[in-house]
Amino acid sequence: MLHVACFVILGGLQKLTLIDFPGHIAATVFTVGCNFRCPFCHNPELVSLAKYSASNIFEKEFFELLKTRQGKLEGVCITGGEPTIQPDIVEFARKIKDLGFKVKLDTNGTRPDVLRRLYGEKLLDFVAMDIKSHLGDYNKTTNSKVDIERIRLSVDLIRNSGVDYEFRTTAVPGLHKEEDFAGIGKWLEGSKKYVLQAFEDKGKILDPRLLKKTKGKKLDLEKIAKNIEKYFGKVEIR
Asked: Is the pTM of this model over 0.85?
């Protein structure tokens, strides 16, 4: 039976991270459910509510833990899944802020309306938006029907928010091509920071059939970074 406290369904918790929230000692909480079906997703158990496990971390337990970490942790990274599809994500972020923690949000950018509310209530200290591909390939890359105007709007909101941010793309050989990143660069030109994340074909992914496409193929991330660095304040490889 699902425990849906405050309509935010949590699927996991990393009690300590030094990398998820740049410059801060943080915890990372994972929400369940996503409106994309990216074949390369490394958190397939968080995509569908149908696979939700009764052993997952619930909201009450999460906030009890945070209270014991006050003065030890600086922030909380809310990731997923896709956190912005949770009905009460704004209230959830507010409760974290009320305990004195900074909030980082990971998002795919499909809910600019939610982003606007979070920004409007000053509940965000950092936003990382996943850029799945250049705009022309979004449906194919995410295996979903995407409202591109919402993606564009989220990018604009993030860039003009005055809150720290980064855009990032998981570069998948066989799915992405080097020239795709020039299209991303032109789209996001002038953005503060862009991160290239290397796809790793180990562990579970949402669609294991993708591994047939990636096998034996490589993307030269150093070359890609050099080609697109002119579009951004900073390009980083992870």
From this structure: yes
